[in-house]
Amino acid sequence: SIRGDGVDAGNGGSGGNGGTAFRGTQVPNGSAGNGGDGGDGGTGGVGAVNGADGSGGRGGNGASYSSSVAGSGGAGGDGGNGAAGGDGGNGGLSFSFGPGAGIGGAGGNGGTGTTGNGGNGGNGGGLNGSNETLNSSAGGVGGAGGSSQSGDGGRGGNGGFAGGNPIGDVTGGAGGAGGSSQSGDGGAGGTGGNTLRSSSPGDTTAGAGGTGGSSQTGTGGRGGDGGRAQIGLPNYGVDGDAVGGRGGDGGDGAQGGNGGTGGNAVRSSGGAGSTVGGNGGNGGTPGGTGGAGGTGGTANGSSGSDG
């Protein structure tokens, strides 16, 4: 991108990274470019005085029919005076059929605010389309929320979904941590990514919720909820364990934030293995309440274990 007001940076070509947006002067800055296939998104520009910043570009998608790690989302730019930080870009999707691992792209971190709020973290990319030749599949992690001095911290991005039926585990992406604040409230943690293992035997674990952001004089952020883990389909049982994601811990503050709820685990039909709900997150100090545990599903007529 050329330097100027409200100008968007270019997108990356296949395998290339998106461009970085330059600083604006009086109006909000342009958005950063998206990554090409497999490339990372560009970084948002710094905001002008009294002007918001640019948001980070979205990460490129991973290559198809191969081991693929999708591109990460770009970081949000920092806000100018009184402006909020920009949101991080979302991670790219991975379409991988093996061999190797398929991994969704990580979400970009939110930008920093001063008197404005921190930017929200980008969401992690998902993984789908994998089959038994793939070693493992994982959703991308959510980006962290941006911090702020007197505004509130940004929310953490959500972890990406993971599906398919690889040789190894199917693992949801973890939620990003909430941003911290000095005199505002901490940002909430992102939600953990859900998972679905639909045919071949193996285990699946949903993503954990992100930790809530801390605050010096305000309230700590709530921990993110854990993701839901599903194994099998209504008319198709699969052998293996399903574990719900753990809830994120609440952030510390003058008042601690509450912990996130643990994710549920569900077995949709028959098949050997355990279903275990995720544990709830711990409350922040002082006074935060711990999150509830997730519920275990039903396996062969017997109840699973609650978190």
UniProtKB/TrEMBL annotation:
Q: Which residues form the signal peptide?
A: none
Query: Per the record, where are the segments of Low complexity compositional bias?
Result: 22-31
Region feature (Disordered): 1-307
Compositionally biased tracts (Gly residues): 7-21, 32-62, 71-92, 99-128, 139-193, 207-229, 242-263, 270-307
In Swiss-Prot or TrEMBL terms, this protein is called PE family protein
| Native species | Mycolicibacterium obuense
